[in-house]
Amino acid sequence: MVFGSVYIADSTSTTALDTSFDLNGSNISNSRNDFYPELSGQWTKYEQLNNFLKSNVAINIIRKYTGEATLSRVIEEFAANDLQSESGSEMLLELAQLLDYLGQNYGYYGGPYLDYVLDEDTNDLLFFRLIFERANRKEWKEIESDLISKQVLTKGLLAVFCLQGFQG
Amino acid sequence: MNRLDPTQFITKLSRNLDSMTEVEMRRTVSSLYFSLFNYWSEIKLCKLGKKGSGKHNDRFPLKEFSRDITINNLSMEYQILFELRVLCDHYTLNPNKIEITDPEVRRMINMPSIQIILNRVSLEDAVDYAKSINKWLKSLL
Questions:
Q1: What predicted TM-score, i.e. pTM, was given to this entire model?
Q2: B2 to chain A, minimum CA–CA distance in Å?
Q3: Complex prediction ipTM
């Protein structure tokens, strides 16, 4: 997934084993295992390594917008402590792309900065917020609508929060 | 399905905002928030057939409530109501301050904390935003 001019190297451009198949397609991976069962272990390791590398790329981008406390919450929530999982790495990539997209398109509002909100009663994580400093409530709604239209995997986990708008 | 519908409750509250003491304002914001949460959980359980936890599967976490609202483009309304409710239920001073949770992010931005105040204006906002969230909840029926 690519937003605006943001580009993150995806698995299809990697050619460590074989350039003829799409690493994003699990069906293809299964059929390869059917044909070449002796390679299935190697294939799984390759997929894990590929997901791990994607996660690392995403984490380095996310780090520009936040601190270590939030980052560790993000990894815990999105990747469930497993940076080699496909779902975790895809969610991290989406968050990284969204942060870059919002920074390029709404950076003049002073943001985004990634933070998190806890439930005061239980200390559970409620959601992550993308903070902008200078947007009013009307602009807040615009950024929020744009964010929702671009989200696939992180829906409900990210909310825009505008400091100026909050104060009325 | 309308046993926990807060529409009448919100209307009654909105007619009495003028003469409220701070105690009444605090209880109003808190009850607005939880009346919406109760109605959402009733819709989840009885209309959508989703099971929660607990003996009768009728206990739902707040994070699911907040995430449901956020997906539906009401996160601004929700967060303003939520932060006011936190002030009303958990903190003594008014006005008060909301701090950014992550200490590194606090250092990155120019406004590491913002003022939150419970007064007639913010109470009206809370009622208006509760009405918006309630309207969305009714659309689920």
A1: 0.84
A2: 26
A3: 0.94
